[in-house]
Design a protein that fits this description.
By secondary structure, the chain is an alpha/beta fold. The chain is built from 18 helices and twelve strands. The structure holds pyridoxal-5'-phosphate (PLP).
């Protein structure tokens, strides 16, 4: 309540994407102003200590911002206009899939018949929900070629840890003391972290000059102490691991298991199944492939599906179809236990099932075909400015390099990404995977039209022209966004978590 409130006329005059900072609600607060009115019902008002015993009353008056409904709505509406989102434009964030999500799936998740059910309700009173979970499990298993799945993990990384705990339970049950898990050097950062949390050591396998796992190096790293390998296919560079059958055979030959990081299934839906490639454990990010945007700050879901020999170890209790056709909660025989307080982030699960059902089998195959077509179109269209790191047909994403812009004009991949924000596009993923210098990783997704892809390509052409004419301006980009160039390292090292701390 420190600064002078300036709520009133601001809304009309403030530009939607201005540089002015939006005051906090506390800065707009005026004593006794409120955003609600209560009408009395004739029932005599109770004193506070008639409602709450005096001993439990807080003596310190809690600061609450006092604003009118009109100012409150304007404040949040202005903030919402400063965001970039999948609903506003293209968000080509490689590896993290930010595709447009059908509003139909939101409508399903908003159904009170689903979202008003307490997760502790007995099975007899939540048969519909259990059927949704069993049906989703069956469909995810059909898509991945697996035998059974848990829907509990709350995100991709949680799914990875669950998968590694399953791997461990499997080996320990066989009296098998194994220590190492292999991971390619192109892997997502969560993979080595999950291996370490799962109690294993990481052995890194190098990629070859084609951006794929080096099979000879892999074979050299294998041994009887290897618990398994974690792979993404297509890998994080966006290329399909063509030797996957040989890789699977080599790992299985030493008694190891194959873990498929299926965070992103957009390229393979209806085309190829991890189970057929030889994988034993698969996690999926429903929030990258099945109708929930990734990274939106909301919940995700990272179900884990397994091959038959791992089914008994799955987390429980699981929604299960009983012999009489009803549904109940059943814990698998040698379950590793719970990995979530309840049954998983259920409304994300409901959205995923509605997405799968509304597309149908052929529709899902088209999702993959269009995702791959769009990525290859973009890779080809941009080749003169941003050549591909590996000049081959890619899958749902393409890894390009800004090395030429850097060599000629001193303009880095980061500058290109920041300038794209000024052009009205979200930036691609930058400096990942780590094995590609000046990497810009675009995942256009299947939801973008060829006109949008062309507009993105033209924006990049304008940026390349600026690199030639005025490279300095690119180092300062973006200028027209609500927040201009930030010092990313400083933000991480000096975290200021309060709005009005002046430090
Ligand atoms: C996004 C991603 C993950 C992690 O998923 P979260 O839901 O963010 O925990 C793991 N692996 C790959 C390849 C990813 O793209």
């Amino acid at each position: 309540m420190s600064k002078a409130p300036a709520p009133g006329g601001r809304a009309a005059s403030a530009p939607i994407m201005g540089h002015e900072s939006e005051p906090t609600l506390f800065q707009m607060s005026v004593p006794d102003r409120s955003a609600y009115q209560l009408r009395t019902t004739g029932v005599p008002a109770l004193e506070l200590d008639q409602l709450v015993p005096r001993a439990h009353l807080n003596e310190v008056v809690v600061a609450i911002a006092e604003v009118s409904e009109r100012d409150l709505v304007a404040h949040f509406t202005r903030l919402s206009h400063r965001q970039f989102s999948v609903d506003l434009g293209m968000y080509p964030l490689g590896s993290c899939t930010m595709k447009y999500n059908p509003k139909f799936c939101d409508a399903i998740a908003n159904d009170p018949g689903l979202n008003a059910v307490h997760p502790g309700a007995p099975a007899s009173l939540s048969q519909g929900w259990l059927e949704i979970m069993v049906t989703l499990e069956e469909k995810l298993c059909a898509i991945t070629g697996m035998s059974a799945a848990t829907l509990q993990p709350a995100a991709g990384a949680a799914g990875e840890l669950t998968g590694l705990l399953l791997m461990r339970a499997f080996h320990e049950t066989n009296g098998d003391d194994r220590r190492r898990v292999l991971i390619p050097d192109s892997a997502h950062g969560t993979n080595p972290a999950s291996v370490t949390l799962g109690g294993y050591e990481v052995t890194t396998v190098p990629s070859n000059e084609r951006g794929l796992v080096d099979l000879d190096a892999l074979k050299a790293a294998l041994g009887p102490d290897v618990a398994g390998i974690m792979l993404t296919n297509p890998n994080t560079v966006g290329l399909f691991e063509e030797e996957i059958i040989d890789i699977a055979r080599a790992v299985h030959d030493v008694g190891g298991l194959l873990y498929y990081d299926g965070a992103n299934l957009n390229a393979i839906l209806g085309a190829v199944r991890p189970g057929d490639m030889g994988f034993d454990i698969v996690h999926m990010n429903l929030h990258k492939t099945f109708a929930t945007p990734h990274g939106g700050g909301g919940p995700g879901a990272g179900p884990v599906a397994v091959a038959q020999r791992l089914v008994d170890f799955l987390p429980g209790p699981k929604a299960t179809r009983m012999p009489d056709g009803s549904f109940d909660w059943v814990a698998p025989e040698r379950s590793i236990g719970r990995v979530h307080g309840w049954h998983g982030n259920s409304l994300v699960l409901a959205r995923a099932l509605s997405y799968i059902d509304v597309h149908g089998g052929e529709g899902l195959t088209r999702v993959a075909q269009h995702a791959v077509l769009n990525a290859n179109w973009l890779r080809h269209r941009l080749r003169a400015i941003l050549p591909a790191a590996y000049d081959r047909v890619c899958m749902h994403e393409c890894t390009l390099k800004a090395t030429e812009l850097k060599a000629k004009f001193g303009v880095r991949g980061l500058d290109v990404a920041k300038a794209l924000l000024e052009e009205g596009f979200h930036a691609p993923t930058v400096y990942f995977p780590l094995i590609v210098e000046e990497a810009l990783m675009f995942e256009p997704t299947e939801t973008e039209s060829v006109q949008t892809l062309e507009a993105l390509a033209q924006a990049i052409e304008r940026i390349a022209q600026r690199a030639q004419d005025d490279p300095e301006s690119l180092h300062r980009a973006p200028q027209s966004t609500p927040v201009s160039r930030v010092d990313e390292a400083r933000a991480a090292r000096h975290l200021i978590a309060t709005a009005d701390a002046e430090r």
